[in-house]
Amino acid sequence: MPPKGDRAAPRFHEVPPGTLLWRVTAPAKPATPEAEQPLFRAPAREVESHGGRWGGRFDATPDCPYPFCYAAFDDLTALCEVLLRDIPFGAEERYLPHAVAAGRRLVLLETLRPLWLVSLLAAADLAAARQDTWLVHTDDVNYPITRLWAHWLRDGDGPAGQGPPAGLVWPSKRQPTGRAVLLFGDRCGDAVRYSPLGSLRLDQPPGLDWLNRRLALVRTRIGPPWPGPSV
After folding, report:
1. Which H/E stretch holds residue 185?
2. Which of 27, 52, 193, 205 lies at a C-alpha separation of 20 to 30 Å from 159?
3. What letter does residue 184 receive in the DSSP assignment?
4. Helices (H), 24-133
5. A single Pfam family, by name (predicted)?
6. Are 156 and 163 in contact, with CB atoms under 8 Å apart?
């Protein structure tokens, strides 16, 4: 658990303005315009207790609420973080149902000013956060604890003269050479926008074909949609 009574003093990673980040959106209805999909997600109002999978590693929580957004510095990391969570290898390749991609898009985000993120990338960074690789590798059964650590790091001081931390950055568990980020919407909501370079719908051609080419690198394939009912 995070230390009580001590203020976090982490190390930081600067994201310069004009940086492109990749994000896989939550499922949406096909007719929903991209502009109507909020960039930052609102925190859950209450903890779900039915035992199912709930949220991500560093989510906001009902007792520490703020809008947030997960993204990555490259497309493959963004895909792996969302689509390959808790997906083990049972054979030479992993086959996922089309439903995992239904309603999802891969979008580009652009930073408009420098963002200072709490760094969890290196051993020295983790040590400054009083942690080790457990924080960025542990399974979702421990996410209630990793979120407490995120809140503690969020409440720490930012780099001198730069304001409080704008988010977190850490090495992806599912794509180890990639970097994942969590952005705090109440601190950088005005500094991140959808990139005018556009987005790609992942549940139908040509996006689905592109998705399977990218996932082939990690021996994974998304199946085709189920055929509609016979007329």
Report:
1. helix 185-188
2. 193
3. E
4. 75-83, 123-128
5. RES
6. no
The mean pLDDT of the chain is: 90
Tens of pLDDT, residues 105-162: 999 999 999 999 999 999 999 999 999 999 999 999 999 999 999 999 999 989 988 9
Query: Both tokens of residue 193?
Result: 């926008």
Characterise 167 by phi-psi region: left (phi > 0), alpha (psi -120 to 50), beta (else).
left
- 118 alpha carbon, distance to own chain's centre: 15
Write the CB contacts of 151 (distance below 8 Å, at least 6 apart in sequence): 2, 61, 64
Per DSSP bridges, beta strands 20-24 and 115-119 are unpaired
Distance of CA 88 to the CA centre of its chain: 19
Q: How far apart are CA 75 and CA 106, in angstroms?
A: 8
